[in-house]
UniProtKB/TrEMBL annotation:
Entries under CDD domains matching the protein: HP
InterPro entries: His_Pase_superF_clade-1, His_PPase_superfam, SixA
SMART domains, per the entry: PGAM (SM00855)
Pfam families documented for this protein: His_Phos_1
Gene behind the chain: sixA
Name by which UniProt lists this protein: Phosphohistidine phosphatase
SUPFAM superfamilies for this protein: Phosphoglycerate mutase-like
Record Gene3D superfamilies: Phosphoglycerate mutase-like
Highest rank taxon of the organism: Bacteria
Length: 155
């Protein structure tokens, strides 16, 4: 069994022409730090996939200041308009290539975070608050997960 953590980025500035350039607000940074502590306390991720968009990168940076990971990759497949099925195929390939990592964190965006959960746990498609984390027990042999909870920041 593996643990897959799917995290939405923290609160970002309002929409603008270049969506990929939107940064976190101060509140978003605080949310990312809060959830970084929560992750460290409960799950200690050891592998990370993160969207190339600025707000996701900033969220991942906050998490990484508190959690040491052995694998860290920017992944263009987990952008808002990404294909969740393709992204999960890629994640499953990475899991098989790196069996030493047991807890995988994906930092991405709505709506793909919901679609990722649905790909792993059919019929489950939570709506994520900013910086929320879905916790999934994942059976890599069966290629199926069980959604345990979605944890949101208090801030």
């Amino acid at each position: 069994m593996k643990t897959i953590l799917i995290m939405r980025h923290g609160e970002a500035v309002p929409m603008q022409a270049m969506d990929e350039q939107r940064a976190l607000t101060q509140r978003g940074v605080a949310q990312a730090h809060e959830m970084g502590w929560w992750l460290k306390t409960h799950y200690s991720p050891d592998a990370l996939l993160v969207s190339p968009y600025i707000r996701a990168q900033q969220t991942a940076e906050c998490v990484l200041t508190l959690n040491q990971v052995g694998f860290n990759e920017t992944c263009k497949d987990v952008i808002p308009s990404g294909d969740a099925a393709f992204a999960i195929d890629y994640l499953e390939t990475l899991i098989s290539l790196h069996p030493q990592y047991n807890t995988w964190l994906i930092v991405a965006h709505m709506p793909i975070v919901s679609y990722l959960v649905d790909q792993l746990c059919p019929g489950k498609m939570p709506i994520f608050n900013t910086a929320a984390v879905a916790v999934i027990d994942y059976d890599e042999q069966a290629h199926k997960g069980c959604l345990l909870k979605v944890q949101s920041p208090l801030k």
